[in-house]
Amino acid sequence: MNVKGIHHISAMTGSVKDNYTFYTKVLGLRLVKKTVNQDDTTAYHLFYGDERGNPGTELTFFDFLHVGQNREGVGSISATSLRVASDAALQYWEHRFTEQNVLHAPITSYAGRNVIFFQDPEMQPLILVSDQQNQGVAGGIPWDRSPVPVEFGIIGLGPVKLTVRDPESTIRVLAMLGFTETGRYPAFVPGQPDIIVLQTGEGGSGAEVQVESRNDLPPARLGKGGVHHVAFRVEDKEELLAWLDVLNHNSLRNSGFVDRFYFRSLYFREPNGILFELATDGPGFATDEPLERLGEALSLPPFLESQRASIEANLKPLDTSLPLPREGEMA
User: Fold this and answer.
1) Count of CB atoms within 10 A of residue 250's CB?
2) For a Cys-Cys bond, which of 104, 178, 255, 329 suits 200, CB 3.0-4.6 Å?
3) Of 144, 86, 140, which Cα lies nearest the Cα of 115?
4) Are 163 and 73 a contacting pair, CB within 8 Å?
5) pLDDT top residue among 73 and 329
6) Can you say whether the dihedral through the CA atoms of 228, 153, 27, 328 is positive or negative?
7) pLDDT at 65
8) Spatial separation of the C-alpha atoms in residues 75 and 69, rounded to whole Å
9) What is the CATH number of the domain that holds 221?
């Protein structure tokens, strides 16, 4: 029983409007769900992804207005990758980033792939990764109403980098989840150990975690521009409950079963303090609104619907409505 790959990444923003503009208008992702943080309903929880928010394509954000800036350090998810289909797509993005004034580096080779390092407006470290030579977990399908041409669109999440003080303990937990070492590459910082590459399931970009050991950094401080947690894919509720038994057997404190309505979850921290989630592939984001209108209205799971009036009163206005598709046009 192994996890299948990366399900989603959840990060932090202090400016929900700017976040929505950047990830939809600049990066061309689809907002597939506008909902709230179920543990703090005064905050939005925005889900961006491919045409329907398939597992493995979802980059999500919690909106906390007064949160401070993220501080780099150990015990953190220090870089998030986004996959594109080809090296030609990277060339498109290099030009687009220049046009859109996005801080970025030139195309380069990193961990055996062609990539572009860049940052969002809140300085979150991001990496565009070419799938030109990739084999393994398939990517998603970019939304055809995106401002980015489909052939160059983002197709999902790529490798996630974890920065820790004690790599062995993190690797033991990843091994429990089914990850195995597939390679190493030199650290960016002189004098630091090689970065260890691990993959699970079918492997490839969508099922890869990179573990970086650093002894020159303080503990990270989570804030805007930082990543809150990484979620890994499991098939269904039955498998999730089996994982709950595994965590308990290994004395890993956890949340127990959590019903997020759009998927079911289980949360725990690995020994270096990074929050991991296991999340089911379904039911999915079209559960409570039609596929063609995903993300346009505030969606609440049934257990929060009775609180809609008070929830809406405490949220900042965020217009995510889109023009209706023309007659005969696929949304």
Assistant:
1) 12
2) 178
3) 86
4) yes
5) 73
6) negative
7) 85
8) 16
9) 3.10.180.10
Torsion over CA of 303, 305, 306 and 310, rounded to 10 degrees?
120
| Contact (Cβ atoms closer than 8 angstroms) between residue 6 and residue 56 | yes
Q: What is the DSSP letter of 60?
A: E
Q: What is the pLDDT of residues 17-44, one digit of tens each?
A: 999 999 999 999 999 999 999 999 999 9
CA pair distance 206, 274, nearest whole angstrom: 19
C-alpha 246/C-alpha 190 separation (Å) is 38
Tally of domains in the chain: 1
Position 331 in a domain: no
**Helical segments of 113-255, H only:** 167-176, 237-249
Residue span of the structural domain in which 277 resides: 6-313
Q: What pLDDT band is residue 331 in, cutting at 50, 70 and 90? A: very low
How many Å separate Cα 49 from the centre of its chain?
Answer: 9
Determine how many CB atoms are found less than 10 A away from the CB of residue 189: 12
